[in-house]
């Protein structure tokens, strides 16, 4: 039994005027209350109460302990209430890790929308393309676009992500449009080294997974730079849809081989604990899932999602 419980029993005995009354007030047996007070005295090595068959009274040291312990316990309870209140309310500093290229492509809008709905949250965002140890580095949550491996972390799927091969119209005119994925092996390609398989691009051929080894003038760990190289006609790129959607919509990039697409990686929110998950983390993850669900329903066009999410989500 912890010391806090023993102290509570001692205080209640004094405030109630006896062991029987304290037992009734606390909903416990008289014997148990007496046991806890005796254990507290043994722990302290002093007698706190004078006991007779009819009444109790505080010893001199017991009177001082009653006064000081009561104040400390009140402060302890106030601190507990404050912490629990902060944990229940959507408020406070939220440390977020996200891939830089993804963040620059489309994360800004959903974060702004989230803060409009939860103005008491302060976001502290680190955008890095490296793999971040969120426990060691003290992050509340991380956004990852990947095929996740087994981990002690909790991962909630936000959405599936299409991965497209595309290039500029001038590039396709110069090199021809590939009819099958294997045609890409003879074409210059821009290789995003953030991708797990790097220069081995995966496709679905005859219902099974197949990979094509590609080469080209640029290996780069930035999707944004890879898109810029594709727009300049330096090669074809294979990237998640949100990196190239705007360029495809305006005709600057043209996707190919869509019938050969594999199920892509997924976007996940990753966080350390499921138990006692804070309200700010839960609200953020729920918001990301709802926002991207609506985004998919509207054709992956962020321009259709200005402002906070509708209240019916």
Task: Provide a quick synopsis of the model.
With 313 residues, the chain is α/β, with parallel strands linked by helices. It is built from nine helices and 14 strands.
Helices and strands in order:
Elements: H1 3-16, H2 19-26, H3 30-44, E1 49-51, E2 56-58, H4 60-88, E3 92-98, H5 100-117, E4 121-127, E5 141-146, E6 154-160, E7 163-167, H6 169-175, E8 188-192, E9 200-205, E10 208-213, E11 215-220, H7 223-231, E12 237-240, H8 241-249, E13 254-256, E14 266-271, H9 279-297
Helix pairs in contact: 1-2, 1-3, 1-4, 2-3
Binned, the helix content reads: 40-55%
How many E strands? Answer: 14
What is the global morphology?
rod-shaped
* Average pLDDT figure: 83
Question: Tell me, what is the CATH class of the largest domain?
Answer: Alpha Beta
């Amino acid at each position: 039994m912890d010391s806090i419980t023993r102290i509570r029993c001692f205080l209640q005995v004094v405030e109630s005027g006896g062991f029987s009354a304290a037992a009734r007030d606390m909903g416990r047996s008289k014997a148990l209350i007496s046991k806890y007070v005796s254990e507290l005295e043994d722990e302290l090595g002093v007698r706190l109460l004078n006991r007779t068959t009819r009444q109790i009274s505080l010893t001199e040291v017991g009177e001082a302990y009653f006064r000081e312990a009561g104040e400390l316990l009140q402060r302890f309870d106030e601190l507990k209430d404050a912490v629990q209140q902060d944990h229940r309310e959507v408020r406070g500093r939220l440390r977020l890790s996200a891939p830089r290229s993804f963040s620059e492509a489309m994360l800004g809008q959903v974060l702004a929308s989230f803060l409009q709905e939860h103005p008491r949250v302060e976001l502290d965002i680190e955008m890095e393309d490296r793999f971040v140890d969120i426990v060691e580095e003290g992050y509340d949550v991380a956004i990852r676009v990947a095929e996740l491996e087994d981990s002690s972390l909790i991962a909630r799927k936000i959405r599936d992500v299409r991965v497209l091969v595309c290039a500029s119209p001038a590039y396709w005119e110069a090199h021809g449009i590939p009819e099958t994925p294997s045609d890409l092996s003879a074409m210059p390609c821009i290789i995003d080294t953030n991708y797990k398989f790097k220069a081995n691009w995966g496709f679905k051929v005859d219902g099974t997974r197949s990979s094509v080894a590609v080469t080209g003038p640029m290996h780069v760990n930035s999707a944004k730079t890879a898109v810029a190289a594709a727009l300049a006609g330096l090669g074809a790129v294979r990237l998640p849809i949100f990196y190239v959607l705007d360029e495809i919509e305006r005709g600057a990039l043209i996707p190919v081989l869509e019938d050969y697409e594999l199920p892509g990686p997924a976007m996940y929110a990753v966080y350390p604990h499921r138990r006692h998950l804070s309200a700010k983390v839960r609200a953020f993850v729920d918001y990301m899932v709802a926002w991207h669900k609506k985004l998919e329903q509207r054709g992956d066009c962020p321009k259709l999602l200005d402002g906070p999410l509708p209240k019916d989500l």
